Amino acid sequence: MNLLNMIFLSIRTNRLAYLLTIIEIAALLLTVNISVSTIADRNMLDKAYNVVLSENSVFVWDTNYTQNKISGLVKTKEQSRELILNDLVGEYKLFDSILFDGNSPDDVKIIALSDEIYDKLALPLMSGNYSGAVASFGSQTGKFSYTYSDNEAIDLEITGILTPQTFLPLMRLYSTGTSFSIKDFYVTSDNFKKFILTRKSSVIGHESLFSIEMGFVLQFNDDNYSKNLEILSTKAGVTEGTKILNNSQKALWEDLKDFIPLLVCVSLAVIIGTVSVSIIMNAKCEYRNGVLWLCGYSRRKILFFHFFNMIFMFVISTIIFVCVHQTLCLFKVEFFTSASFSLENILATLIVCAVLIALSMIIPTIKSRKTSPVEYLRRAK
Amino acid sequence: MIELNNITKIYNPKKHNRFAALNGVSLEIADGEFCAVVGKSGSGKSTLLHIIGMLDTFSGGKYFFNNQDVSKIPENAAAKIRAREIGFVKQDFALIEDYSTIDNVMLPLYPIKASNKKKKAMEALEKMNITHLANKETKTLSGGEKQRVAIARAIVNEPSIILADEPTGALDSKTAADIMSVFKKLNDEGKTVIIVTHDLGIANQCKRIIEISDGEIVSK
Description:
Chain A is an alpha+beta fold. Helices cover about 55% and strands about 20% of the residues of chain A. Chain A folds into two domains: about 5-45 and about 260-380, no CATH class; about 45-255, no CATH class. The two termini of chain A are about 20 Å apart. Chain B has helices at about 45-50, 75-85, 100-105, 115-125, 145-155, 175-190, 200-205; strands at about 1-10, 20-30, 35-40, 60-65, 70, 85-90, 160-165, 190-195, 210-215, 215-220.
């Protein structure tokens, strides 16, 4: 009997068991993928900033901007920043983001990051790469010219499309505290309907159109770090880079902790369910296995039918999981859009499936070794 | 050629309910014989048949099948020999009831990767005069029809040996007579037929009677 015929006949006689198991496995795959994506999302948050938030770096934000503007001391954010930077000693590097907002709410926003931060990005992409700019509207790629006023345009090359619901790096502070973590430097892409993320070096010549964000990172040498930290502390809000990274680990773990009970519960339920169904289905097939033994099928071949049965169920579950996921993403159901199809997700899916299949084959394998298939024929059908 | 030398079969050898089903059975069955193995219930008839058919292993002794030492044949090879050389017929027919007749008959053709499976299956059904049942589900057939399907399956690979365990046990006398005539015809074609039965009427239709009692051969 060929494999597919046997599987279809098995499905016909065990419809409910198949249906329940397939739904269970699909639910587990969805949970695993969301968890993996969540972990990946959280892990990638600090990749971009790790290079700049080193031992000799500080994050600075202007705590006096409003007062200074009212008093007339400064007129723009750029002037306010100059005020903070003008007393610094020695050399330093500045990392920040600038934003072009467009003339109307529906316009494309262009977010330009310091090149070092952009080059370390690991945001999930639906397609393409980071070599040019990444966009989040339609599927447009290639050279892109954005006209921001009559006869004025900025040229960019779109080389990638961001996945929806991504965390965007932007030093836009919503927190008024000082115990920053990496999460404070990101906003979700939902805040921007259409945007392009690019390097600051791509917008050279058009900086006057961009407005700076409120925070920025300064990186000093060993020699001038302490002195400049002292100077900055008198003029602006300051927090050290290493402190931010330490806070980030705690903050990211807090986020992940919420998923763990869900993942553990769903995993346990599915493991018990799948293994139970495998044992029951194997028991129901005992008589059939006895007949196959009679007809010249070896124990290995008989077990292989069961194994292939399980593989078939997992393939169907994966297809259902992908279809359900895509449908839920279409309706922008937030919880589900965080599952994506990166290499980590695919590997996690394969590992989960392999472990479940292995677990569900243990008892049938032990049973087939201990019991002669001819015994199945002796027992009642 | 089947040669059994001092075969023993012990169930649960290491447990408290250890039971010796066969106790030093020695037997030779030549090609083309038509034998009946008779004995009371629990005498070891079915165990003997299962060992002859390589469905079960034995605890001691030697078994030569066509001059091959069976204890040295690996399981996968033994399975192929079962498919190719041995046909089984059981009292309860041993059919997969959810499959059609032809699907049941084709079962032994897959392990040996036979070609033209459907054609061979139809030929076997034709020999049993049941081609009209080919696409019917086995569960809808009568007892006599099911046993004919089982015999068709047993002969589809043209095996040299047919082993039947109480093949008429679940049938009425007329159907039982029909089935026995089928076995006689198969024996006339040169196949070795061994029938296990507790019915002396059936046994007397065979050319040789082997009597077994309490796991030992009483007469050959």
